[in-house]
Amino acid sequence: MRAIIVAGLLMASGAAAHADTIRLHAAGSLKAALTDVARAFEKSSGGQHSVETTFGASGLLRERIENGEPTHVFASANTSHPKQLVDSGKAEEPVRVFARNELCALTRGGLSVPSDKLLETMLAPATKLGTSTPKADPAGDYAFALFAKAEALKTGSTAQLQAKALQLTGGPNSPKPTDGRSVYAWVMTSGQADVFLTYCTNAALAKAEAPELGIVDIPEELNVGASYGLVVIKGMSDAARSLADFILAPSGQSILANYGFKPGG
User: Fold this and answer.
1) Exposure pattern of 122-144 as b/e (b: 16+ CB <10 Å)?
2) Which of 26, 82, 160, 214 is the Cys-Cys partner for 229 at CB 3.0 to 4.6 Å?
3) What is the 3-state secondary structure (H, E, C) of 31-44?
């Protein structure tokens, strides 16, 4: 009888542990930072909660959630994708901004570009200009917003930049490195682009992997800020809300800052 009781308790314990697994879907640019945040959250819970992470382009993740893929918390590289889930009744209000980022220009090895010559370099016919994929990945949307701002600096530049931009990452069929490398380091070292517009945090990770790459600060009159928003999916447990709160709390914010993200607030 005692053995049966013990076995029953173990089964109940295992079921509780499974129920406490929190699924976090998050933007690919958050992979390194939120992986560390997830581990810190697990530790802070005393082992009561575990976090299962899925990273990818925010727009594609939103579509998967809309199509029924189970998740508990969605952390996007913009606020519009989480807002769509709120508007469709799939996520709880409000959308909370938990981090901010900016665009940088990642340049191939051997190409030196002063910040004040970046627009001229991107417009040069010989320059292969890379971006992520608009609508599927907010990084692509931010890059195209930068192109729109360029019109005030040089007439006709928006159309030229949009026409020549190579949408190399973030799309549903975008190729990826098979060896676990940073996709941005891979794109640049494999010669797919001379200049690639991405988040400054992504650029720093790519340069750490491939030191020959350059990072160019985008002039203020061209740059576009990125606001990252998160939501909790409707009907989820308090544990899911606890993870969202942890990301916004000082412990989570400190880890995000270590990876170059600016505070949400």
Assistant:
1) bbeeebebbbbbbebbbbbbbbb
2) 82
3) HHHHHHHHHHHHHH
Which residue carries 């627009």 as its tokens?
119
Provide the 3-class DSSP secondary structure of residue 258: helix
The widest CA-to-CA distance across the chain, in whole angstroms, is: 84
Q: What are the Cα distances from residue 235, in Å, to 86, 89, 247, 257?
A: 13, 11, 20, 31
Number of H helices, E strands in the chain: 11, 10
Cα gap 158→148, rounded to integer Å: 5
Dist. CA 69–CA 42, nearest whole Å: 23
Q: What percent of the chain has pLDDT over 70?
A: 92
C-alpha distances in Å from residue 127, one per residue of 121, 152, 188: 7, 21, 13
Q: How confident is the model at residue 133 (pLDDT cuts 50, 70, 90)?
A: very high
Secondary structure class of 231 (helix, strand, coil) = strand
Say which DSSP state 172 is in: T
Mean pLDDT, rounded, of the chain: 92
pLDDT of residue 180: 78
Q: How far apart are CA 37 and CA 227, in angstroms?
A: 18
Q: Tokens 């928003």, residue? A: 229
Amino acid at 177: P
Residue whose tokens read 């794109």: 187
- Before 94, cis peptide (omega within 30)? yes
